Amino acid sequence: MVCNTSRRTAQLMECGVVIRDPTDSASFYLSAYVLEGKVAMVSFGDSGGVPLVDRLKTDLTTRFGRPQAVKNGMWQWNSAGGNIQTVRFTWRGRGSARWIYITLTDKRVMDGISRYVGRKK
Fold first, then answer.
1. Looking at domain 2-115, which of 3.30.930, 3.10.50, 3.40.1000, 3.30.310 is its CATH number?
2. Quick one: pLDDT at residue 121?
3. What is the per-residue pLDDT across 22-70, written as a single tens digit (0 to 9) for each?
4. pTM for this structure?
5. Concatenated DSSP letters for 49-76?
6. Do residues 33 and 41 make contact, with C-beta atoms less than 8 angstroms apart?
7. Which of 22, 68, 113, 117 is deepest in the core (most CB within 10 A)?
8. Residue 62 burial (C-beta neighbours within 10 Å; 0-12, 13-18, 19+)
9. Burial of 40 per CB tally in 10 Å (0-12, 13-18, 19+)
10. What number of CA atoms fall less than 13 Å from residue 109's CA on the CB side?
11. What DSSP string describes the chain?
């Protein structure tokens, strides 16, 4: 995994790695934002066809319940306490190809990034 620190502070890192599945050599991308040693966001990116998207929809709905459809190609589940921890499933496609992302976000940690990011003037 390669991590790059923010130009403004070492407290904020963006990390990423391409991982290959040893069984079928398929690769997927794992990325994360780490703030003050805590994971604010982790995302898994993959590609596949419609059957993979459908399987993930079923698996995530079974695990987290009925999703909130945020917009076309995006479902979201919020933690019981509201919009603090979020699971987001996003898919985009062209022809038979699909780009698929599952993102886990902790808003309490993510909100801390504002301390290190400059404001637009």
1. 3.40.1000
2. 58
3. 877 778 899 999 999 999 999 999 888 888 889 999 999 999 999 999 9
4. 0.80
5. -HHHHHHHHHHHHHHH-SPEEEETTEEE
6. yes
7. 113
8. exposed
9. buried
10. 19
11. -EEEE-SS-TTEEEEEEEEE-TTT--EEEEEEEEETTEEEEEEEEEEE-HHHHHHHHHHHHHHH-SPEEEETTEEEEE-TTSSSEEEEEEEEEETTEEEEEEEEEEHHHHGGGGGTSPPP-
Q: Which two tokens stand for residue 39?
A: 């994971």
Identity of the amino acid at 68: Q
What are 91's two structure tokens?
């898919």
